[in-house]
Amino acid sequence: xxxxxxxxxxxxxxxxxxxxxxxxxxxxxxxxxxxxxxxxxxxxxxxxxxxxxxxxxxxxxxxxxxxxxxxxxxxxxxxxxxxxxxxxxxxxxxxxxxxxxxxxxxxxxxxxxxxxxxxxxxxxxxxxxxxxxxxxxxxxxxxxxxxxxxxxxxxxxxxxxxxxxxxxxxxxxxxxxxxxxxxxxxxxxxxxxxxxxxxxxxxxxxxxxxxxxxxxxxxxxxxxxxxxxxxxxxxxxxxxxxxxxxxxxxxxxxxxxxxxxxxxxxxxxxxxxxxxxxxxxxxxxxxxxxxxxxxxxxxxxxxxxxxxxxxxxxxxxxxxxxxxxxxxxxxxxxxxxxxxxxxxxxxxxxxxxxxxxxxxxxxxxxxxxxxxxxxxxxxxxxxxxxxxxxxxxxxxxxxxxxxxxxxxxxxxxxxxxxxxxxxxxxxxxxxxx
Length: 433
Prior knowledge:
By secondary structure, this protein is α+β, with helices and mostly antiparallel strands. It is built from eleven helices and 17 strands. The protein starts with 7 loop residues before the first helix and ends in a 5-residue tail after the last strand.
């Protein structure tokens, strides 16, 4: 009889200790990708991986990888993991619950004397968040061979390139080392994550089984007008880039609310203004757009209307404009066979977990192009995330990791997993800089 009891005390202690690295305020965290705080976190988690019996390494892309050899190293491997980098104004559970939960799965297996049939790897993926270099899921894209030209030359707001940041982090990055995995190497990828939404709380359920991930589009819009003195240029003669940007942002918000589906979301989360002076008319404005939906057709219709909106607004205010596509993905659905295993194990545990979709994207989104994948969500209070107020009860995290453990045991001990993964289609990472 395989024991299904993870070490709750150990997992809780790891969550608390990691939250002290990069701590802001009482409950917030700032561990930006490739920063010294990120490295401190990676070093600490590396220790916990080794205590769990994993052989560890930090690769040239900043990924922390732990490996437990199975009885048959010819079998496709099982990968578990998430990330430990954070937003600049982040919480304690985003990514970390899944990364540390994955380590706990392996540690519990070792505690119970279980040697898996197939090899297990636990990965803390580098720069999932994307907040520092305005493009995330970096480490997992490197592993999957989906990096873009000029990837290492992207700069943060202080002018530091990703290449420089990675060197300071402690690795020498060589893009020719990507990809690391190819189709057929991986039996399955499993990721546990806090929900970052209110569905589970509304259903009064601690855990959910994910059906799929919405497809995101990330755009950067640049508008250019003409700078002038705020006190002397008549209103009708102005080419004010900030006014144009404001109108686009307002109308984009209205467009999504009025014409989107129940699963459509649109966000403008970052803006830079030049010359950024109170008494100079804004000459240049650059802002980001995040548009996503599980319904690809609905997203496409809104995207077309967004482009028309930008063009019309730029014309009205006599502005030049440029639209750069940073990320595009189709919705990616979890593998039916993995959901089936999860539901069977969930029934044994008595959780009665509902199935729900993911609006946010995760490392699993990229893994879906080289492996079948499954995800487990854990309830978080009021759906708050990317905020120091982010909170998940330990009881709920424990249940989620129990389900991750049970699912992992099933997949590890099965003699064959012969599920094919579709070719890499539907994702682009274009950078025109």
